[in-house]
């Protein structure tokens, strides 16, 4: 099992999760985060830290696409281990449908 970041993180990018991760497996894109599925130790401490409820275990239905999404971008983006302010759009975008298709950016974030 691993944990993955889903589309509800897009345009929110809360980083509360990165501070509690014991193995630094979060990677930062321009407007979202991802978890490297091979580095995640399945401890689950990040899941309750996410205000947007965007972190899910891969054992939930239909998570295969998110495992591959997280793998792809974690291999391209810089690691993030320190909390930053969320995006200014975080509150209004939390819970919006279709964020992957409408807003996702492949551009990397700044990392640490």
Index terms:
two-stranded antiparallel sheet, 4 helices, 4 strands, Alpha-Beta Plaits, single chain, 112 residues, alpha+beta
Write up what this structure looks like.
It contains four helices and four strands; from the N terminus they run βαβββααα. The strands form two sheets. It has a two-stranded antiparallel sheet. A two-stranded antiparallel sheet has the order 2-3. Helix content is 22%, strand content 11%. The chain has a single domain (3-82), classed as 2-Layer Sandwich (Alpha-Beta Plaits). The protein has helices spanning 16-20, 64-74, 90-93, 99-103, and strands at residues 3-5, 26-28, 33-35, 55-57.
Gross CATH architecture:
2-Layer Sandwich
Instruction: Characterize the quaternary organization of these chains.
Output: single chain
* Spatial strand arrangement across the major sheet: 1-4
The helix count comes to 4
Into which percentage range does the β-strand content fall? Answer: 5-15%
Largest sheet: 2 strands, antiparallel
CATH class: Alpha Beta
Structural class: alpha+beta
Please state the average pLDDT score.
Answer: 97
Q: What is the radius of gyration?
A: 12 Å
How many beta-strand segments?
4
Q: Which residues form runs of ≥5 with pLDDT under 50?
A: none
**CATH-derived topology:** Alpha-Beta Plaits
C-alpha termini separation: 27 Å
Estimated helix fraction:
10-25%
Choose one word for the global shape. globular
SSE layout and pairing:
Blueprint: E1 3-5, H1 16-20, E2 26-28, E3 33-35, E4 55-57, H2 64-74, H3 90-93, H4 99-103
Antiparallel strand pairs: 1-4, 2-3
């Amino acid at each position: 099992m691993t944990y993955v970041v889903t589309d509800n993180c897009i345009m929110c990018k809360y980083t509360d999760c990165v501070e509690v991760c014991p193995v630094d497996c979060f990677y930062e894109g321009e407007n979202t985060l991802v978890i490297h599925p091979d580095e995640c130790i399945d401890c689950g401490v990040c899941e309750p830290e996410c205000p947007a409820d965007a972190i899910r275990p891969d054992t939930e239905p239909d998570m295969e696409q998110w495992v591959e999404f997280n793998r792809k971008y974690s291999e391209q983006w810089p690691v993030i281990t320190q909390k930053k302010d969320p995006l200014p759009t975080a509150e209004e975008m939390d819970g919006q449908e279709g964020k992957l298709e409408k807003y996702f950016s492949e551009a990397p974030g700044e990392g640490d």
